[in-house]
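Here is the promised in-class demo. Please do not try to memorize the tokens; focus on the logic of going from shape to residues.
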């Protein structure tokens, strides 16, 4: 998880796969297009679309689409930093990854470096808002 937070400071999205006997997938921000690429890379590496034994590490609780992709890939576990009360699908709003009606469930570890992840994401989105304001100077900031 430390590699997720430190790498997220250097880039918007880290999409590398590291291994140590089993598959560990690391991402700083989990978005569905990135999730698809990461899962595709992992499936290619594992030579199987079933990612049994793999763990996804992310800063923010996965959204419903990403949670669904994790279930369909048969991911073993997801580890995330901070909860997402608006769109979280592992604990906060929904619990797709552990829904007993589905054919696969993941282990979930939440709150790992939560404060650090929250600050990281807040800084990221503050920067994005400032960038957008510079590109559209006549726009009124919601933060003013």
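The designed amino acids, position by position:
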């Amino acid at each position: 998880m430390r590699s997720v937070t430190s790498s997220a400071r250097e880039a918007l999205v880290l999409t590398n796969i590291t291994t140590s006997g089993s598959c560990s997938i690391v991402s700083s921000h989990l978005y569905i297009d990135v999730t698809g690429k990461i899962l595709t890379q992992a499936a290619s590496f594992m030579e199987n679309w079933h990612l049994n034994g793999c763990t996804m590490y992310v800063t923010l609780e996965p959204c419903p689409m990403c949670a669904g992709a994790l279930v369909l890939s048969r991911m073993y576990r997801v580890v995330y930093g901070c909860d997402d009360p608006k769109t979280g699908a592992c604990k906060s709003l929904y619990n797709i990854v552990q829904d007993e009606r589905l054919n696969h469930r993941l282990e979930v570890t939440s709150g790992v470096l939560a404060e650090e992840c929250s600050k990281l994401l807040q800084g990221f989105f503050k920067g994005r808002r400032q960038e957008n304001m510079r590109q559209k100077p006549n726009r009124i900031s919601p933060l003013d």
